[in-house]
Amino acid sequence: MLRWSALEGSYQTLLRLASVVALLTTGNTLSVSSFPSLSSSPPTSVFSSSQGNSLRSTTPVWLPEHVLVYPAMYKYKPVMYSHRDDLTAAGNTVSTGDKDGGGGGEEGGKEEIDVKNTTQPLNKNFRLPASLRPTHYIVRVQPYINGNYSVRGSVQIDIEVLQSTSNITLHVSTMDIHVQDIQLEAAEGDEEGASIPRFTHFVDNLDVEVFTAHLDGELEAGRRVRYTVPYEGTLEHYMGGFYGLHYTDVDGTERYMVSTLNQPVNARIAFPCFDEPQLKATFELHVARQVNMTAVSNMPLLTTTPIEDQEGWVWDSFQTTPPMSTYLLMLVVMSLPHINITAHRQDLPIRIWARQEVLDRMSFMHQVVPGVLDFMETYTNISYSLSKLDIIVVPSQEGIAFEGWGAILMYDERFIQHDPLENDEVNLGKVAWVQAHELAHQWFGNLVTPRWWGDVWLSEGITTYMSNLAMQKMAIVSQSVAAEASFTLHELFHEDSQITAVPVFNQQLDVFKPDTYFNVFSYFKCSLLLHMMAHVLSHHAFRKGMVSFLHEHQYGSVGQDDLSRHLTKAAHETHTLPQDLTVKTILDTWTHQAGYPLVTVTRSPAGTSATAFQEKYLWSQNSSLLSDHYSTWWVPLTHTSQASPDFNDTLVKVWLKGTETQTSVHNLPTRDHWVVFNLQQTGYYRVNYDDNNWNLLIQQLLTDHQLIHVNNRVQMIDDILNLASSGKVSYNTALSLVEYIKKENETLPWRVFQRNMEHMKKMLQSTPAYEGFKKYMWSLLVPLWNLVGLENKLEVQTIQQEHSEAVKWACHHNLPSCVYLAASLYAQWMLTPENIKVVPRDLWGTVYCTAIAHGGEAEWDFAWQQYFLSNDIHHKEQLLAALSCSRDTWEENGYLDLALTSEIKQRTQGAFQVFYSVASNPGGKPLAWNFLTSRWSALANFSFIYSVRYSDSGAAVEQLVVAAAETLTSQQDMDKLRVFRDNHRDNPRVVAASEVALDIVARNVAWMERNYDVICEWLQARGFNIGLR
Ligand SMILES: [Zn+2]
Known about the structure:
Layout: H1 11-26, H2 65-75, H3 83-89, E1 93-96, E2 111-118, E3 132-143, E4 150-161, E5 165-171, E6 176-177, E7 183-186, E8 199-205, E9 210-219, E10 224-234, E11 241-248, E12 254-261, H4 267-270, E13 282-290, E14 294-297, E15 301-306, E16 313-318, E17 331-334, E18 338-341, E19 350-353, H5 356-359, H6 365-380, E20 389-393, E21 401-402, E22 407-410, H7 425-441, E23 449-450, H8 457-474, H9 481-495, H10 520-537, H11 539-553, E24 557-558, H12 560-574, H13 583-591, E25 597-603, E26 610-616, E27 635-637, E28 639-641, E29 654-656, E30 662-665, E31 675-677, E32 686-689, H14 691-704, H15 710-725, H16 731-738, H17 747-764, H18 769-788, H19 797-801, H20 803-812, H21 816-831, H22 844-854, H23 857-869, H24 873-883, H25 889-901, H26 910-920, H27 925-934, H28 936-949, H29 956-965, H30 971-983, H31 988-1021
Parallel strand pairs: 2-8, 3-13, 19-20, 20-22, 23-24, 25-32
Antiparallel strand pairs: 1-2, 3-4, 4-10, 5-9, 6-10, 7-10, 8-9, 11-12, 13-16, 14-17, 15-16, 18-19, 21-22, 25-26, 26-30, 27-29, 28-31
Helix pairs in contact: 1-2, 1-26, 1-28, 1-29, 6-7, 6-8, 7-8, 8-10, 9-10, 10-11, 11-12, 14-16, 15-16, 15-17, 18-20, 18-31, 20-22, 21-22, 22-24, 23-24, 24-26, 25-26, 26-27, 27-29, 29-31, 30-31
Bound molecules: zinc ion.
Residues 64-65, 403, 437, 441, 460, 463 line the site of zinc ion.
């Protein structure tokens, strides 16, 4: 299970904000170097990462590794001392040894060789020439982790010449290349006696990090050469390549370690290499370490030998890897303790390395790791490929995890700890899911690797899907994974209907902007597309296709068409797909374009047939943004009816083809029986019906909602509230349908309902209608509240799991009995501050926020003090959020300033969290806006740092503009925004952000004009009185 309770509202927006605001909140610590200078000649001081720039804190907890890791990494892409400086210093000329060939490496005389240092831009989509293929690397490194943070290294690459060429081009990032010692010689298997050309000059392209050795003659196709490049680098840079970090042990000792993060394009920071994922080779790693440390890599240790002349140092040599991509080479040198895990089979040693206090909270891993490995081996019919597995928990709290082959890295201790005594199933689900995801990568991603980063969903989407299956199989947590997938789908539906949504397959991507391809779509949309395909093709055919895909391409690399081909073959053999239809035809329509269809079902007057019409569903109705409104998909239609309800048959009944906008569906019942399309919502699309069918469904839900599958109840709630919001269905119909929720005792419909009503609350909260709306919400919540309360006397199993959520909703809507209980609990805590357990852990956020919102200065001050006293990160986060719940505007005003000037901004995205919370509060709206405009210059400065360090994909302030717009609903707000935009005409990105914000506000204004009176009438007709407008 994944209980992503941190997800509310626009999580994609939050995600982007999270990544950029981390910079915003830490921008001015950039030049602080916290790395020690332990030697007489430390490397040039460079940007350091260890202070306050982590992306944890309010980052949604469900996100796996990369989405969080990469924005951070690239922002701080090091501006380091590098070989380029040296080349420049040497007047672009260095001396290099003459590499006379003749098959024997005969030493020649010295001569001057030109080195050109160029910034001439190559295409950002630059790919290495297809002329060379690396087959084997020998990497030797000596990291001075307890010394001056330098790394001495040498790489020896065996290369097969595929096409005749007169240069050797590979990737090199921030390091000193010892150009004079570069060698080229014949490798094993080369032509007997063939001569080796000599180097003429080297060209170094900074933009795409490519280093080219030009030769005075051709290397003919079929030749095999060995290219040796000695270099010197540093561990002192932000996460990427081999990098150093330090942490404090439980006894207060400061310790240092080396870790790796090579994905996507950082192996070139660690060592010169052909840094493209499809260029797989075998790796032999030798690392020099001090005797009191341990080195871990992908493969088991082979030998350890003392280093002559260096007392206390040894060489660790590891077994040669199978063929793999450069980004998977792992190296960790540390002095962490470990525990052993008993695997599902005897011959596989599994170790987990972490600080002792973290190891003590890992009992669940004895179940999770063998369980997932067993599941993956059974599902794929391929044994785990390596002869050992290490999991190393790096005490860094930057990002979440990386799927290193044979050596998984966890970057945040919180994502691997679970205390059984806390009985926190949400946390257990989260940490188990992250492990399942990384373990599934050992097959999908590591064994079979996407050929290029534009296909990364073949690694991330499949892995996300497989980890869901593994979780379901292992039943570690009680909530069904299918239900969780359904909730994910509704979150994604919102993001994927925005103008900012992007296709998952992006051929033109810029590899230096990993957040554009490691995103919610490549992880979660693709997982849901696979879920859809498994239902379309049958689970049997789907698995058959996946297994043959894996078997054929193991140790190789793949593109989307390879997967489609295997799935097609399996489905044709199983007769679940027409022979004239391929998976590629279907799947391409879903991966090559952003968004998804709305299918509108209109039944004939007799009801017995219907037309199903498809159009792109867009949240915004702004016509200027509808350029690709006429997109079409291959939509698998499934349906059932009141006449003989069967929600389990999810095989396709009718295809709505990608070549047509509508199709006919026959054999439906008469018009007095409802129909439901998209059974169990296995298809990635929304459904609308004609009024008569909606009314039949409303009657059904009010009389016996359980006759309709819970996933379809969820679907109807989400679809109809969205359709009402975008003007396609009347709120009369929508609100009538959701009234049944009073009787709902499943949690998923409630969660989706609450998420949707949040939008309506934001719209109405500053209007007279809000009083009526609030009482209407109470009327729906009271039955649930009576069941749950703040106590744990629970009768309904599923509600029990969502206990804290139910309380949250009740308090969020100010249900008086909830407010009273929250205030009482908080008061008790104020009396005994040391006892934070007065308030149950899972209710911290709800209780604190409610008590502060309804309390006074004393409550706020108490939380403020506790924020600084607490050492518990989760507790701090809850306090930070709660501080913005105050209704007292002066407090909020002061709070925004404090957030930018105090310790808060040192802590992760504190400032953003504060801003967003304040902006979401009824009284906070104008404050947030004023703050944004009055503090503009300070904020814009952060934005500038962001843009030069990272990329131009977005800046903090732009995102703040958009966030501030979410609760703006009036023409005056529009005018303010226009003025703001016009004042920043000189900054195209701020103008662009303002346009997005204007679109949001325009939509809000239109929503108010269209729906306000309708909603007021509806509320009044049910006795929920509203004030005067
Ligand atoms: Zn992953």
